Amino acid sequence: MAFPLHRMRRLRNSEGLRRMVRENSVAPADLVQPYFVCPGSGVENPVSSMPGVSQLSVDKVTEAASRAADAGVAGVLLFGIPEHKDAVGSSASDDSGVVQRAVAAIRKASPSLLVITDVCLCEYTDHGHCGVIEGEQVANDATLPLLAEEALSHARAGADIVAPSDMMDGRVGAIRAALDEHHFEELPIMSYSAKYCSGFYGPFREAAESAPQFGDRRSYQMDPANSAEALREVELDLEEGADIVMVKPAMPYLDVIRSVKDTFACPLAAYQVSGEYSMLKAAAERGWLDESRVVAESLLAIKRAGADILISYYATDVATGAV
Ligand code: PBG
User: Fold this and answer.
1) 274 CB near ligand 1 (under 6 Å)
2) Backbone angles phi, psi at 180, to 5 degrees
3) What percent of the chain clears pLDDT 70, i.e. is strictly above it?
4) Which CATH superfamily is domain 25-320 in?
């Protein structure tokens, strides 16, 4: 006898009612905007597979970040495109590298903005892998001190949060130990804990110039078929000292976001990656989808699945209302 006593439509009949019973929302304070920092000054290099996204030199990224800050965006996430690449990614821990200089410049210009740095070697190695190579393998343990050095360099530059994305085992612990040893015990780590080996990173690799020159990342990033394994990854990262954990990509892994949220009482980030952005952009450019509706809907889906922090190339556009 549910109907006609109960009518679900009653609470949908006006915006006032819908707003009152709305369960989830996306606020600028939930959003993080990624940027690709490149050498030079006055440089804005459009990324062809990500319309609206450019590689930006330090001065330009500082301007863009202050627009993000004005819109109330919580933070920015920085990736570096260095001048020089080599086999061990040495420029990753160069205190005068593009990311290190951008951190300092953004902190100065926009003190309210959180500056998060991506800690990984793939943008800095000439082979494009996220660690050092021994034989045909990405060597786990030999990579750890290099990641710790990179994180320390970001810390010295003034980063508010460091975010390791390499997927080496033990890297959160190695970074935590190095930070603590150098008196950065209060600096949080946001770990890319459940990072899948995803085709949706395609456009990023053009943006960050980080495509692997041989092989792929299957020996260190997660198999898309797995979900229980994501919980183990998160558990281990928390044990090693991660403060915030992440699931990446977002939309194809909403089930994983939900199970991490239900299992662990810690802040959870989700990354709407380059391919997710490019799909929505491409369909919008063709007039096939209404961009602002589908962007809002996709971010809401990620929030509803359980993410607290949304990393998205749309962050500033959503916060300003441009999209
Ligand atoms: C670096 C890294 C990648 C992304 C974030 N950090 C690329 C990769 O693992 O190949 C992808 C982000 C995106 O696609 O937007 N390891």
Assistant:
1) yes
2) -65, -40
3) 100
4) Aldolase class I (3.20.20.70)
